[in-house]
Structure formats: C-alpha cells, structure tokens
Amino acid sequence: MARLIWLTGPSGAGKDSLLNALREAPPDNLLIAHRYITRAADAGGENHVALSEAEFRRREALGLFAVSWQAHGLHYGLGEEIDLWLARGLNVLVNGSRLHLPIVQQHYGTQLLPLVLQVSPEVLAKRLRQRGRESDVEIAKRLARAAEPLPAHCYALNNDGALRDTLEHLRQLLAD
To answer: Which of this chain's residues are annotated to bind ATP (predicted)?
Structure first.
C-alpha cells in the first residue's frame, strides 16, 4: 500500500534541507510533493509554488487541493496530484503541518506515516538565530511550541547531528 509521509517539525529543524537532500537521490517508489503557498517564490527556504491569495482561494474552491490549511498568516495546499500518485502505488512525502495532522489522519487513515523532525532546544535556538528571520520574541515562541509533546502515533526523527545521518535514518524508515 502506498503511503503519504507527512513530515513535520519546528521551523529551523531542517525539513527543507532534508527534503532537498532526499530529492538528490530519492527511492524509486517515492515522490516529494511541492506545496502551494501564498508566499513569494524568492522568500527562501523550501521550493514551493507561489500563489496569490486570490489564486489560492480560486484553486481551493475548484477542489484542486487534496489538503489545504492556514498557518503563520499564509495559505498552504497540497495539490490533488498527491492522490493520483498514491493511487498509482507511489509513496508521497510532503512537508506537512503538525496542527493539521488530525485532519490528514481522518482523510488518509492507515496510508499515513507521520514523521516529526526534531532537534534539541539548543540546536534549534542556534539555527533560528543564524538564519536571522525571527526576533528574539518570535524565537522564544518557536522554542516553546517545539517543546510541546509529539502527536500520538508519530515517528521521531532526530536532526541534531549531520544531515547525512538523518537522511540515512529517513531512508531506513521509508524502506520498512
């Protein structure tokens, strides 16, 4: 059975780096989906499809998203193509949202493999400061949110060390 791999984790945990590394040599039966986001294409970080809010809402109304949500003042969507890929027996890895995991669990049930990329508070604080996108207050909020317990039935994937080690652990999880 094809699986939807829902990768979550705090901002700064390294999700984009991990997905980019996996894109270099993905397993044969895996596709990594791009998200549709109401954020400029050159905003940095993840490779996404940039949409205006009006275009996002239009596509949402037309039913072109398998899943959509709002977070941090932006709209996020996963195109209906992920359902086509799953129907063809391909595993699909997406950069998901921890808060919207219950909705995705209801929709995909046993096809869902929820993963949470974690880093220690010290490493996360250092990474957030280095990238320079958040104020000290915003960093404190992100650290507090990252300290919340893992959602039930999620697999933890630690990214404190070398990215290649995290990538290897992810490959092992995907091979099971």
So the answer is: 9-16
Residues within the annotated binding site for ATP? 9-16
Tell which CATH architecture fits domain 4-175.
3-Layer(aba) Sandwich (3.40)
Beta carbons of 116 and 156 less than 8 angstroms apart: yes
Closest by CA position to 117, among listed 31, 8, 2 = 8
Per-residue pLDDT of the chain (176 residues; tens, 9 = 90+): 999 999 999 888 999 899 999 999 999 999 999 999 998 877 766 778 999 999 999 999 999 999 999 987 899 999 999 999 999 999 999 999 888 899 999 999 999 999 999 999 999 999 889 887 788 898 898 888 888 888 778 999 999 999 999 999 999 988 87
